[in-house]
């Protein structure tokens, strides 16, 4: 059975093939010649418009000489590409999980995020990310900087000149008040939120404290909408994540997001609250 294009795992596979080819120094036409295939077919595989069979993926990786560990990771994506839901678990799952998130962000037409305790990833400053990585992962200095730069590059989907993604962020007030790093880091982060909120494609609203129970207390989540594929729900945890395209789950979380929207301050009120917190942090 042919795999469905546009699922998170299929998107991660197309991105992995594209990056592996570029890392090997092969152009699309040269690779197509080596495989006796049309270059349009390879372009469609790399763009996610079509999904290659496992045999084709194996041939590509063999021709371009992909290192063993990376080859096994990509083949793992190809073997399970037909599965709609995608759960990545444990430290070894992080690269695949991150690849799926990055590709969903890159190709989405709209992203809606609920973040109760941290600033949403697409709105985080470099220093804010660095503090989190230094304290939370027991990583080497080089690994910390690699993750910081990767995180920073992801925000380009909001600020790019052509077709920036529409991003709606509902943020818990606790996330604005929790001191992640020294005061200067938080002041810079809050100022960045105010700057991003002025962009026409970004909507930022704060859900205040002490509003009673609501479904957002169960944890953070994101909804990705695509121009060419069904929407996807993403649930992220410390060292795992789940991509869920199931229609009834997506609908349930849209209702949860609507509930949060009823509790949230408006954009202007949210900006005023953030400005107040900046003044408090600076004194």
From TrEMBL:
InterPro entries: Cro/C1-type_HTH, DUF5753, Lambda_DNA-bd_dom_sf. Pfam families: DUF5753, HTH_31. SMART domains: HTH_XRE. It comes from the Bacteria. One of its GO terms (molecular function) is DNA binding. PROSITE patterns: HTH_CROC1 (PS50943). This is Transcriptional regulator.
């Amino acid at each position: 059975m042919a795999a469905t294009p546009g699922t998170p795992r299929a998107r991660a596979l197309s991105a992995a093939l594209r990056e592996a080819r570029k890392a090997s120094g092969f152009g699309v036409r040269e690779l197509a010649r080596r495989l006796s295939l049309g270059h349009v077919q390879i372009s469609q595989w790399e763009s996610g418009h079509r999904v290659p069979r496992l045999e084709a993926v194996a041939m590509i990786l063999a021709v371009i000489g992909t290192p063993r560990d990376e080859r096994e990771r990509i083949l793992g994506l190809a073997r399970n590409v037909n599965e709609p839901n995608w759960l990545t678990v444990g430290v070894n799952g992080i690269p695949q999980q991150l690849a799926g998130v990055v590709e969903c962000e890159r190709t989405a037409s709209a992203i809606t995020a609920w973040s109760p305790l941290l600033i949403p990833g697409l709105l985080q400053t470099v220093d804010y990310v660095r503090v989190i990585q230094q304290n939370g992962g027991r990583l080497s200095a080089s690994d910390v900087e690699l993750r910081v730069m990767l995180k920073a590059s992801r925000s380009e989907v909001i600020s790019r000149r052509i077709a920036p993604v529409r991003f709606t962020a509902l943020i818990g007030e606790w996330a604005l008040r929790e001191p992640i790093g020294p005061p200067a880091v938080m002041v810079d982060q809050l100022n960045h939120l105010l700057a991003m909120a002025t962009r026409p494609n970004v909507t930022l609203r704060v859900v205040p404290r002490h509003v009673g129970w609501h479904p957002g207390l169960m944890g953070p989540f994101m909804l990705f909408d695509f121009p060419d594929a069904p929407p996807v729900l993403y649930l992220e945890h410390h060292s795992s994540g789940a991509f869920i395209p199931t229609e009834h789950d997506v609908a349930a979380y849209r209702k949860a997001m609507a509930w949060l929207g009823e509790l949230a301050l408006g954009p202007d009120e949210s900006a005023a609250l953030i400005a107040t917190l900046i003044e408090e942090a600076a004194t």
